[in-house]
Amino acid sequence: MTSISGSHLGLVELADYELLIDSLGSELADQIRIEFFNRLKQWIRTSDHSRTIDQHRCLVVLKGVDSSAALELATAKLHRLFEHPYDLFGDPTQIEIRVGFAKLEGKTDLHTALQQARKALRQARSQSALYRVFDGRHRDPVITEHRTIKALENALAQGELELFYQPKIQANFGNIIGAEALMRWHPLNSPVIPPGKFIAAAERSRIIRPLTWWAIKSAMARMSRWPDNISVSINIPPHLLLDDEILDVIRDMLDLYGVRPPRVILEVTENIMVENQQQMMTQLARLRKMGLKVSIDDFGTGHSSLTYFRNLPADELKIDKSFVTQMVKSQKDLAIVRAVINLAHNFALKVVAEGVEDQTTADRLKALGCDYLQGYLFDRPLPVEAFEQRYIY
Fold it and tell me: DSSP code of 304?
């Protein structure tokens, strides 16, 4: 191989290949893999060097691509090659890829560059980005995430986790009808850590199961002390819906604390229907048969389809706050909010608008017939003692 100094080494992978095999089967996943390599060949120039690493990864040395500007041009071409869905026997399927780059310069050898590219690839995965370039100043996301998980395990054992509660308001009368339970991490002698700092890492680890079971137990224990008309919404990670243990956990907690099932609302994100749709439908129906209620969170940002919506085992929809916060200024967002409210009511579903931050938005939602409101206009998520003092006792 001729000199490769002044180039970039890239590690390109077909994203989530194992998940493709699980959801599509090995034969269909193989068709996508073949298309992945076919498109990749169109990106690699005759002056570049490439080598297949395994079934769904390829190493590429981009000769002469020695600056960030040149690399941006190369990745822009790569994006164009993969932006169009692949026709998988009549079903348009998006081929997602991830790339980690390392710059080859000076004394950098191929082995070191490959290790650097792997770290950059892990960062691209963790951020759902097309590509990342190795930067020695940044921590390896895998190491950082591992430390977060170990700290979470200790936090659970030491009782450092707590649930905050944000009120859910009846739109017409302005009275509280329930609350959403939101997890917070409060290390000893340190500020409270919001879920955005640790939930995503937890969901990629086995720690999410005990965290979720703890949240269910804690919420029901608190509900048992509150008036019978106050419900609590609990967020459930999508993959745990298919874990049959959730049925036993909820049933045991209902019996232990004497909580009526309709007071418990399980919040699940709309993208639960992207994969395992029939299994998800069946599990949601089983939970509702127990008397629980189901809320579809972040509605409007996922993969809505009337074909599943018609038989969706749910009781309410939560309009994503990205639409709610802009609806007074944006006619398009207002039209989306109006359409979701009308659609939900036609299917006998209640509607919650989250992200309500001003009275004008609240009044507009009330006029549109929205059932429940949630947001900073009414209150932020509160520690349980503050929530109880303000709304319960």
Answer: -
Q: Looking at the DSSP assignment, which residues form a beta bridge with residue 232?
A: 179, 264
> Measuring CA to CA, how many Å separate 267 from each of 114, 292, 325, 378?
42, 11, 21, 20
Please choose, from the candidates 327, 277, 269, 278, the residue with its C-alpha nearest in 3D space to the C-alpha of residue 300. 269
d(CA 15, CA 320): 27
* CA nearest to 236, candidates 192, 186, 180: 180
Three-class SS of 91-112: EEECCCEEEEEEEECCCCCHHH
d(CA 253, CA 299): 28
Widest distance between CA atoms in the chain = 77
* Torsion of the alpha carbons at 300, 305, 310 and 313, rounded to the nearest 10: -60
Task: State the number of CA atoms in the 13 A half-sphere of 200 facing the CB.
Answer: 11
| 8-state DSSP, 329 | T
Burial classification of residue 132, based on how many CB atoms lie within 10 Å of its CB (0-12 exposed, 13-18 middle, 19 or more buried): buried
| Contacts (Cβ under 8 Å, ≥6 apart) of 72 | none
d(CA 56, CA 37): 8
How far is it, in rounded angstroms, from Cα 371 to Cα 171? 6
Helices 245-257 and 208-223 sit at what angle, rounded to 10 degrees? 20
pLDDT of residue 27: 87
Rounded to two decimals, the pTM is 0.66
DSSP state of 26: H
Highest mean pLDDT pick, 29-43, 60-74, 233-247: 29-43
**CB 126 within 8 Å of CB 146:** no
